[in-house]
């Protein structure tokens, strides 16, 4: 009986060494926050960015469209946080120039991520965000809009995806700021 147990153990251990993990199995994490995020106060009202929602349940996995009707979840490259949290953090940083003023905000921004994907055949990253701006404290909706930005990438890498998603989100933040100053 002992020989059988030791024999099975030896086969099991040999099996583990026959199928070693492939090189490079470390998981890389990416963020969309630019290395030097710039607060944009630019005479805008005081803004509080509320949590965003993600329309998809892919969490921190990066999603690549590989062909029509087929997506790939990258198991070795992931977002540092779910995209909804990263978008909220980037927008909060972008509009943080308004925090120097004391008191409650004039407006709140909330929304949802509709699309946050890299299309490999088109070499394009698409960021689509639905935004709702409310007056504070009444919570009356000032306006709603869906913003989409398509950013071309040169390389089909997770790093290029993250950089393009950052650029697309910053372009949306600039569009929101433009819309806010137009409403004033």
Could you explain how this protein is built, in words?
The protein is an alpha/beta fold. It has a single domain, classed as 3-Layer(aba) Sandwich (Rossmann fold), CATH 3.40.50. 30% of the residues lie in helices and 35% in strands. It has helices at residues 2-18, 83-94, 158-183, and strands at 28-30, 47-54, 61-67, 70-79, 107-119, 124-135, 141-152. Strands 1, 2, 3, 4, 5, 6 and 7 form a 7-stranded mixed beta sheet that branches. Helix 2 crosses helix 3 (158-183). The protein is elongated and about 50 Å long.
Features:
seven-stranded mixed sheet, 7 strands, 184 residues, Rossmann fold, alpha/beta, 3 helices
Compute the gyration radius: what is it? Answer: 22 Å
Low-confidence stretches: 4-21
The percentage of residues in β strands lies in: 35-45%
On the 0 to 100 scale, the average pLDDT is 83
Number of domains: 1
CATH topology: Rossmann fold
**Which structural class fits the helix and strand makeup?**
alpha/beta
Order of helix and strand elements from N to C terminus:
HEEEEHEEEH
Helical amount: 25-40%
Tell me, briefly, the overall form.
elongated
Q: Can you give me a brief rundown of this structure?
A:
This protein is α/β, with parallel strands linked by helices.
Strand and helix layout:
Elements: H1 2-18, E1 28-30, E2 47-54, E3 61-67, E4 70-79, H2 83-94, E5 107-119, E6 124-135, E7 141-152, H3 158-183
Parallel strand pairs: 1-4, 2-5, 3-5
Antiparallel strand pairs: 3-4, 5-6, 6-7
């Amino acid at each position: 009986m002992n020989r059988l147990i030791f024999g099975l153990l030896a086969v099991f251990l040999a099996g583990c060494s026959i199928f070693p993990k492939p090189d490079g199995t470390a998981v890389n994490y990416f963020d969309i926050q630019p290395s030097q995020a710039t607060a944009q106060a630019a005479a805008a009202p005081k803004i509080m960015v509320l949590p965003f929602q993600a329309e998809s349940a892919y969490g921190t996995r990066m999603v690549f469209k590989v062909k029509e009707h087929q997506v790939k979840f990258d198991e070795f490259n992931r977002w540092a946080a779910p995209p909804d949290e990263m978008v909220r953090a980037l927008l909060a940083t972008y509009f943080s120039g308004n925090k120097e003023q004391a008191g409650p905000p004039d407006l709140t921004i909330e929304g949802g991520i509709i699309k946050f994907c890299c299309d490999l055949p088109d070499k394009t990253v698409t960021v689509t965000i639905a935004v709702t701006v409310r007056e504070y404290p009444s919570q009356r909706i000032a306006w709603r809009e869906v913003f989409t930005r398509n950013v071309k990438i040169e390389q089909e890498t997770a790093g290029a995806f993250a950089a393009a998603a950052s650029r697309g989100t910053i372009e949306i933040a600039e569009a929101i700021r433009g819309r806010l100053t137009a409403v004033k």
